[in-house]
Amino acid sequence: MSFEEGKFQEVLSEFAATPEFIREVAANFRQDLQIGLRDPKSSSMRMLKSYVGLPTGKETGEYLALDFGGTNVRVLRIKLEGEGRYEITKRVGEPLVVPGEYDYICKNSTVDQMFGFLARLIDEAIDGDHETKFYLGHTFSFPSSQDDLNNAKLIIWTKEFATPGVEGKVVNDLLLDALKKRGIENVVPVAVINDTVAVLLSAAYKQSDVYTGSIYATGHNTCYLEGSIHDPKGFGVGGMILNLECGNFMKLTPNRFDVELDQKSEKPGEQRFEKMVSGRYMGELFSMAVAELLGEKKCDFSAIDMSGIVSDESPQLDKASEIIAEKVGRKLELADVARIRELDAAIIIRSARLVTASYVGIVWQRAGNGKIQKQHVAVDGSVYEKMPLVKENINRALSELLGEDAANVDTILDNGGSGLGAAIAAAMAVE
Ligand code: BGC
Prior knowledge:
The protein is an alpha/beta fold. It has a domain at 5-37 and 249-413: Hexokinase, domain 1 (3-Layer(aba) Sandwich). It contains 14 helices and 15 strands. A six-stranded mixed beta sheet has the order 1-13-12-11-14-15, with helices on both faces. Strands 4-3-2-7-10 form a five-stranded mixed beta sheet, with helices on both faces. α8 crosses α9 (303-310), α8 (279-294) runs antiparallel to α11 (334-367) and α11 (334-367) packs across α13. The longest helix is centred in the last third of the chain and has 34 residues, at 334-367. It is globular. The chain starts with a helix and ends with a helix.
C-alpha cells in the first residue's frame, strides 16, 4: 500500500517553516520580549528574574551541584579552580523513572518520594559525610518565581511532570525537609537556578562573548543577560539573567497536529512553543502524522526513533524501514519509508528553524538599534547535540535571518552546563 501523494504533501506542508514564517516568529519573539520587559504579565513568556548576572571567571572552591529537571537527576561535587577551570570530583546520577520499578514524576507519586530520592542521591554524593559543610547549588529546570537567588517557588510543572504537592511550593524548603529527614544538616543550599541560567553561567565561566543560554532537549527554554536590570539582592556582573520560559511563547500559529497534541497533553494551553520544538514532544507529533497517513489509530515513535530513521542514508533504507516496521507492526514499501523519512526530517527542521528564530529575536533585542556584536549562544541538550539535521539547519536559519551579521553569531555546545552552572552559582552566592 502506498500513501496517496496529495495526502502526503498536505501533511508535509503542515510542518513547513518558510523563511517568511521564521522571520515573523523572530520579530514576534522580539516584540514579546519587549512587552515582557515592560510588564511580564503581558508577555506570553514568563521572563523570570534569576538574581544572578555573569560570573567573573575567578570563582573558586568545592561545591555540590544538584541537577534536577530532565529524565535523570545528577549530583556532582565540583572543584572550581578559576579561569574557566574545574574538576568534577564525584558524580552520582539516577533516572526519575524506571518503568516497572518506580516513577517519581507521575500523578501517583508524592513529594516525599521525589525529594527523598534527591536527598538519597545527595547523601551518596557526600559519601554519607554528615559533618563537613557543603554549599549546594541547585539547578531546578521548571518555571519558578524568585525574590532572591536562593528561593524558588515552582509556578507550574512542565515536560509532563505531574507529582502533586510541589506546584506553589518553595523547592528549597522541600529539599531541606527531605535532607533533615535523612539526618543531613551540613548541606547548605545557597542558590537555585534554571538550567538555561546554568548553561549561560557555565559557558561564560569558560569564555567571553556569551550572553544567552539555552536548553534544547526534552524541554526547551532560553535565558539571556539583560543589562538594564540590577538588583541589590543579585550576584554577578553585567546586569541580571532573565529566564524567559520561552517554552511558553505563544505568538506563532500552530498546525493542526500541534493543536491536537496540546489538547491531549498534561497541561493544555501551556508551553505551546516547547510542544512544537522539544524532544519530549517531537516523537509524538511525528507519531500522530504517521498514524494519520497510514490510517493507524496510534504509533509510538520517540525522538530517538526519529533520529535513527533520519540518519539512515542507505539506498534501501533498511534501518529506517526496520524502525518503522517495529512501531507500526508491518513492513512498508521503500517509497513509503522514504516519505516517512522526509516527514521526519521536516519536523526536525521546523524545530531547528523555530528555535533559531527565537535566538535571533534575542540577538535583535540585545543589539537594539546598534550593531550586532560578536556572540555565542550557549546551548546544551540532547536534541542540539545529537539530533541529525539540527545544527546545520540552525546555521542556515541564522544566515537567512541575520544576513551578513550571521558572521558574528553562532551557537556553541556547553555540554553538562547544568551541573557546572549550579556550582558556579553557589560560588557566586558565598564568595
Ligand atoms: C521548563 C524550563 C526549562 C526547560 C528545559 C521547560 O519545560 O519550563 O524551565 O528550562 O524545560 O529543561
